[in-house]
């Protein structure tokens, strides 16, 4: 890890399909207060869960070709399980000079922590069907019973919830219900939140859950990995040029703009 000065500091770019990646940005700022951040939301492509794989991969690669040229970040955090499990390897191959920190389902820590051996992974349909996810289960959780739950609706519901809109308890309960399994006298005790939108709803999940479980949020671990990979800044003041959000639709609504302001981000 290199040491640099304030003048040399490049921004950290955080990318998500929507505004769920703010959960990762929040943790990254705690660990890297001297850094400027650029938050990129591909809201024009949201939600990613229903895309055809090759079309989505091509979209993500094209977006990063533009983003890296325009902003020249030191490091990119892909704060989206669907995007990284699909295109992470291709991004690293296409842009070998850039460091990418990815988001993958936290299956390994879930397998290490579970006492019942019953773990559920709450994700988008795209993440659930990805071979990457199944490889993680085979590598780290082969002794567990892992249920993959691909929600078609929860990412959209989370976006509405984050903006302060009303979300039906019954609708949320229906989305999380498949995560809860009883088998041979034991119950699911860990649910992996494998979409960065979902941690914003964790308190609601706890309220609606049929029994208590550990809702595993990987945001802090992602931020720690990013912290390890960026250069150390000595006596650095926080740069004024960054801390803004970019939306690919170029038309975020009023509630989204207000949310960004609450996170200290200007909307470009």
Verbal overview:
The chain is α/β, with parallel strands linked by helices and 268 residues long. It is globular and about 60 Å long. It starts with a strand and ends with a strand. It has helices at 22-31, 53-71, 81-94, 107-113, 125-129, 131-140, 154-162, 169-176, 202-208, 219-229, 254-262, and strands at residues 3-4, 12-16, 37-41, 75-78, 99-101, 118-123, 145-150, 182-183, 186-187, 190-193, 214-216, 232-233, 244-247, 266-267. The chain has a six-stranded parallel sheet with strand order 5-4-2-3-13-14. It is built from eleven helices and 14 strands.
Mean pLDDT: 92
Please report the distance between the alpha carbons of the first and last residues: 31 Å
User: Which percent bin holds the helix content?
Assistant: 40-55%
Q: Summarize the biggest pleated sheet.
A: 6 strands, parallel
DSSP strand content = 15-25%
Physical arrangement of strands within the biggest beta sheet: 5-4-2-3-13-14
Brief summary of the model shown:
This protein has 268 residues and is of the alpha/beta class. Helix content is 41%, strand content 19%.
Any chance you could write out the topology, listing elements then pairs?
Blueprint: E1 3-4, E2 12-16, H1 22-31, E3 37-41, H2 53-71, E4 75-78, H3 81-94, E5 99-101, H4 107-113, E6 118-123, H5 125-129, H6 131-140, E7 145-150, H7 154-162, H8 169-176, E8 182-183, E9 186-187, E10 190-193, H9 202-208, E11 214-216, H10 219-229, E12 232-233, E13 244-247, H11 254-262, E14 266-267
Helix pairs in contact: 1-10, 2-3
